Structure formats: C-alpha cells, structure tokens
Amino acid sequence: MSYLQRLLDCNQYNKLDFVNFFISNHQVGYIKKDNLKIINKFPNYFLIKKNKVLLKNGLNNFNKRTYAINKVFEYLVKEKLILTKHREYFPVFKFFDSKAILKAQRAVGSFFGFQFFGVHLNGYLKKKNKYFMWVGKRSNDGNFPNDLDQISAGGLPYNVSVKNNLIKESFEEANIDKSLVLNSKYQGTISYRVETFLGLSRHILFCYSLELPDEFTPKNNDGEIVKFYLWKIEKILEIIKNSRKFKFDCALVILLFALKKKLIKSKKIRMMLNDRLDLKILRKFKEY
Length: 288
Fold this sequence. Notes:
Nucleoside Triphosphate Pyrophosphohydrolase, globular, 13 strands, 10 helices, four-stranded mixed sheet, single chain, 2 domains, seven-stranded mixed sheet, Transcription Regulator spoIIAA, alpha+beta
C-alpha cells in the first residue's frame, strides 16, 4: 500500500455511471443512472433529458426546492434505501459565498451528488523539533466503527459558519474550548468523490491545525470517540501508508498537514488532494 492508494480510496467512481443534475441552469450534483427510475416517480419535480436531470423551473425558491428534495428523501427512507436515523440538514450552494439555494438531509446528499462540506482539525504538539499528534478512535456503534480519526471533525450543517462549526465540533469531540481553538491555523482544503450504494458522495473539507499545550488532554463529549492517543507523526504516517486503519478522509487531512510541515514531499500527492472542478464552488472563500 502507499499514500497514493489512500488518495485513490477517496476518488473511486465512474463518470459514465452518472448524469448531471441541474437547478436553475446550474449544475449542483450527479445522479446515478440506476436511480433515474426513482427520479421518474416524481414527475412534478424533475425533468429527465439526455444525460441530465433538471429540477423543474416552477420550483424557484429555497422552500420549494427543499420540499422537492425532501420528498425523494422520504421515499428513500420508506423504501429502506436510507437506513440511518440521523437527521441533519446540510446546505446546497451554487457558490459557497452566496446564500444556500436549498437544504437537504445529510443522508440524501450522495443520491443527488450534492457538494457538501466539513471541518477537520489536527491537534498536535512539537517537542524538540519532533511532531506528535492526537488521534481519536471512533466508537464501534457509529459510522466507520473503530476507525482512527482527527482530534475533531464534522460535516457543515445548514446555517452554521465554518468558524462556528470548528468551535462546535472541537468542543463536542475533544473538549477544546473556544479561546484555544481560535488559535488554529487554516491549512487548506481536501476534496473527494466516492461512489456509494446510493450515489456519489462529494465533500470539501476545510482543514485546520492547532498546536496544543503539553498539559492538554482531549476528552470526548458526544460519544463518537472512545479513546485518544498521542503518537509521533512518523508512526501515524506509517499507519496511513500501510493500512486503512484511519477513516478514509481523515488520512488525507493528515497528509496535508505532513506536506505543510515538509514531513513528506510529493507534488503528485499535493495535486491529488483536491479536484479543481469541485473547488470552483468556493470562488472567493476566506478562512473563517
């Protein structure tokens, strides 16, 4: 295995399996061709043309669009194609610096191939020019059971800013208070596309790093993490290189950290961390 394999793990999909999804003449997602039979069940909301699906023009405001997408979500739940009980709205944008055009349940995101977002934080220490990083082990009864993870990370809910999400997730997952986490440094983005049973999962992750005081010990507050480890960065990179013990996207966030700190050097890895087509949605994004 290699670092490149971990990057490939986060970019597994076949473009030929999907059609483009448009809202108001703007592409916002991708729908699996196998799922067009489900789209056909909602003729009041969608129009299927060659190689694309359109949300009907009459659905021309936030509430109407949200209603239509939620009807599909309800159908998928009823048919047990979505099994999770978790309910949380995520925003769907034309551009990240503009208002959301609708909100969609997180669980339906991959069905429509919506571009969702998240915030990840690497918490580290530096001792005698050596880097150490706090790593969490996920619960065995949630998503990605027993995988290794960042000290804190989470998806971006509707009506929550990147800054406030970083504050929220850092407290919930590692008991990092606001005054401390606001010392974190923006590192850049990771983007990925992974084909799933339901469709195409697309995420852009805003990545931060925080140098923590020696006396700090993380404590989980939301039940997602069962244990924390403070490991040398060399050990962490070796695990990423030789196994899939880290949650797939978390591995990439650590690789970005290692690149920034010049612990590894690879122009190819740096270029593969983002899909330039996806990053167009950010346009004029500024940290916080």
